[in-house]
Design a protein that fits this description.
TIM Barrel, single chain, nine-stranded parallel β-sheet, alpha/beta
């Protein structure tokens, strides 16, 4: 309940309804004869509210809502709805196939169910309490879109810099590196522009002239590093050109984040080491991350808890690899629940719902306008007052010819579309995180019941 009320901009105070003279604002439970403006049943089976999703507006009877909004939101945000799937529901990297997900089964691929439920609750509170909460976004903006770029391949020839033999790496690793070196050499020989993927300055110019900024996620562990794998990146941020690039990114007001390595999920000591390396090389504080390959391990909650131990302030790693959509059915920022500690983590989760490959690789058949489905999703985020993070890789965000030229053109059209709508706040993820963490709750209190014999301020 605290999540929903916080999003809606209300402060909450838990009270014992038997000791309170006035009626309470919201009651969630099954006790009879509770004097509350809004009563929400506690029903563990409620997750998908068909009538609301279909566009109907079921009206409460005597304040009694017919669906367990609070419980459903909790089950979606904790991913309980996908907790009992078999091993073959996951790919070899432990990522859930969209087709095997709860979201696919109920047809909620691009439907942020949590947003719908929270908005419904907000409408009830406005109608029944005659009070509005603090806006979620600044300056009258209706929603937020976070721009980000995973830096996987900044250089066509990056693999050529990797050592050919590394002690401790196995045969599979060496064969993979040999193959990458051969491909890099062919790519280098076949391109007139050897820096075709080095698009950072063009990206910053295009976004900046539209009043936007974005986050660049850099990896500091490559394939040859101590815990690097054949799935990690080729480049080395200790190269002088990266130092120059970091300075330009900071000067232009853009953000540098960590692209955590494939094995960073193994423990907080790995994440701490990577965070420290990037901060030293970039000479800036790194407050956010996204895991490379979205490789969080099968115990996702353990990995998310590691973010808190290391001191990150936000993460944006929860997404479907093979489909656009809302991995935990939300287009709202949230603090993931730490089951072991029985409390929310202190690291914001900023939901990523679309990457470039979703539109150009995984959508079959490819639509005439690759952006059409993305625009529809953004409109839904706007209607429900939410947040959506977009990931367009550095090498695909600007048209410089070659295999990603159409991807780059599409990204520029996306920027134009976003710039034309003054109700959408478009910025980097760090700025969004800092805004949310500094947002002050409205002084209007909402009273909600607590367990018998105890009460505290929310």
């Amino acid at each position: 309940m605290r999540f929903a009320l916080g999003i809606l901009g209300y402060g909450a105070e838990r009270v014992n309804p038997q000791r309170l003279q006035a009626s309470i604002g919201i009651y969630h439970g099954n006790r009879n004869k509770v004097d509350a403006h809004v009563l929400i049943p506690d029903r563990p089976g409620d997750v998908f509210w068909q009538e609301l999703v279909a566009g109907q507006r079921p009206q409460p009877k005597d304040g009694q809502v017919e669906f367990d909004i609070i419980g459903a939101v909790a089950r979606l945000l904790t991913d309980q709805v996908n907790s009992d799937l078999p091993e073959d529901a996951y790919d070899p990297h432990g990522r859930l196939y969209f087709a095997r997900s709860f979201q696919a089964r109920v047809g909620a691929k691009n439907m942020p169910l949590v947003n719908l439920y929270v908005k419904y609750l907000g409408d009830l509170l406005t109608a029944n309490l005659n009070a509005k909460g603090l806006p979620l976004w600044p300056d009258g903006k209706q929603c937020a879109i976070g721009l980000s770029h995973d830096v996987d391949v900044p250089e066509i020839f990056g693999a050529l810099r990797l050592p050919t033999i590394v002690q401790g790496k196995g045969l599979v690793w060496h064969l993979a590196i040999a193959k990458r070196k051969a491909k890099a050499l062919l790519d280098l020989l076949g391109h007139k522009d050897s820096d075709q993927y080095w698009c950072f300055d063009q990206i910053m110019e295009e976004e900046g002239k539209r009043g936007f900024s974005s986050t660049f996620f850099f990896a500091c562990i490559n394939r040859a590093s101590e815990w690097g794998t054949r799935f990690d990146v080729d480049y080395d941020i200790r190269q002088p050109r990266f130092q120059d690039l970091f300075r330009r990114i900071k000067t232009n007001g853009f953000e540098i984040g960590l692209h955590a390595s494939y094995n960073a999920y193994l423990g907080p000591e790995y994440l701490a080491a990577e965070k420290n390396i990037l901060e030293q090389q970039a000479e800036t504080e790194v407050i956010g991350l996204r895991h490379h390959f979205w490789h969080l391990g099968r115990d996702v909650n353990r990995t998310l808890a590691s973010h808190q131990e290391v001191g990150f302030r936000y993460d944006s790693s929860l997404a479907f690899r093979d489909s656009m959509g809302f991995r935990r059915s939300t287009a709202l920022p949230f603090f993931p629940w730490d089951q072991g500690a029985r409390r929310p983590l202190a690291v914001l989760q900023l939901p990523m719902f679309c990457k470039d490959a979703h539109l150009f690789v995984f959508e079959r058949p490819n639509p005439p306008d690759p952006l059409s489905k993305l625009k529809a999703c953004i409109e839904l985020i706007k209607e429900t007052g939410g947040l959506g993070v977009i990931d367009w890789h550095n090498r695909t965000s600007f048209p410089k010819g070659g295999k990603y030229d159409e991807w780059g053109k599409a990204y520029l059209r996306l920027l134009d579309y976003l710039a034309a709508d003054r109700k959408i706040w478009v910025t980097d993820l760090g700025t969004i995180c800092k805004w949310l963490q500094s947002r002050t709750l409205l002084k209007t209190r909402i009273l909600v019941p607590t367990k018998e014999g105890s009460s505290h301020a929310g």
